[in-house]
Design a protein that fits this description.
Layout: H1 3-16, H2 23-33, H3 41-49, H4 51-61, H5 63-78, H6 86-107, H7 109-113, H8 119-139, H9 151-160, H10 171-181, H11 186-211, H12 213-216, H13 225-250, H14 256-274
């Protein structure tokens, strides 16, 4: 992989990671258009690792909230009388909500990295899950806010997050949709999606770095660690601006623009696959 391609892929990852349009789906499509074998081990590892750049941008962007929540959680664990604190409960909620995707990801890792990497799955997921997003966006009452989030909410949202293991569904789209169906407001579900992304995506990064380190190396025919690092840094920079923009956008708009975009992209991809302009793998 050359540096230009690394910057391009990193920018796409950073911009799409927290939008409900599927960053993995976009990366898979772009990697295919660039001529890569999308289910090759170095490519699937590269795709997972560069997500850490966008996640790190989120951690820094939300650093004050994270410090407050972690501090409250630690104090609550140490002292029973402090467990009524909303941040303590929110900390536990995020922990519980992060468990399902970790379990499912490990159990079905091979299927996720091979069968589900087909562009037919990407196209289908983009279109089908758009219907779910549309229903949630219109059915949600949004009467509940950040102080109302419970462990039950995040456990349900975290379980739905597992659908994002199918490229095209979108991790943020899955979590936001589940949150809306729990009657949480859009800004709250967007922030909650950010928090749930941190353990899920950083865990995937560590796992892929450890298990696929040699396969990524250019000496072994992989994409190379320099392009991987460049793409991750680019993902961080672009992700920082994307997070800031998304929170402001969601405060004033529905998800309609994202839903329309998903359907159009999925339809175009199906046409390209049907006419054999590109192969599914």
């Amino acid at each position: 992989m050359n540096i230009f391609e690394a910057v391009l892929l990193g920018a796409v990852e950073g911009f799409t990671e927290f939008l409900p349009i599927s960053s993995t789906g976009h990366l898979t499509i772009l990697e295919k258009l660039l001529g890569y074998e999308i289910d090759a081990r170095d490519i699937t590892a590269f795709t997972a690792i560069i997500q850490s750049g966008a996640v790190l941008a989120t951690v820094i962007f939300l650093r004050h909230d994270i410090v407050r929540i972690v501090t409250a959680w630690v104090r609550g664990v140490m002292r029973r009388d402090l467990r009524a604190n909303a941040d303590y409960r929110f900390g536990w909620a995020v922990i519980l909500g992060s468990i399902p995707i970790g379990i499912v990801g490990l159990l079905f890792q091979d299927t996720i990295e091979t069968t589900l990497r087909s562009l037919w799955f990407v196209a289908g997921a983009l279109i089908v899950y758009s219907g779910v997003m549309w229903f949630a966006d219109h059915a949600a009452t949004q009467v509940r806010h950040v102080g109302d989030v419970t462990w039950k909410d995040t456990l349900i949202i975290g379980t739905v997050q597992c659908l994002a293991l199918v490229p095209g569904v979108s991790r943020s789209g899955a979590t936001m949709t589940a949150g809306l169906l729990r009657d949480l407001d859009r800004v709250t579900v967007t922030k909650l999606s950010f928090f749930l992304s941190i353990p899920a995506l950083m865990g995937a990064t560590v796992l892929q770095t450890v298990t696929e380190f040699d396969n990524i190396s250019a000496d072994n025919g992989g994409v190379g660690w320099l392009p991987t690092i460049v793409a991750t840094v680019t993902s961080f920079v672009v992700g920082w601006f994307a997070v800031s923009w998304l929170l402001k956008f969601i405060a004033r708009h529905s998800y309609s623009i994202f839903i329309v975009y998903r359907v159009v992209l999925g339809a175009v991809l199906m046409v390209l696959l049907t006419t054999n302009v590109i192969d599914a793998r």
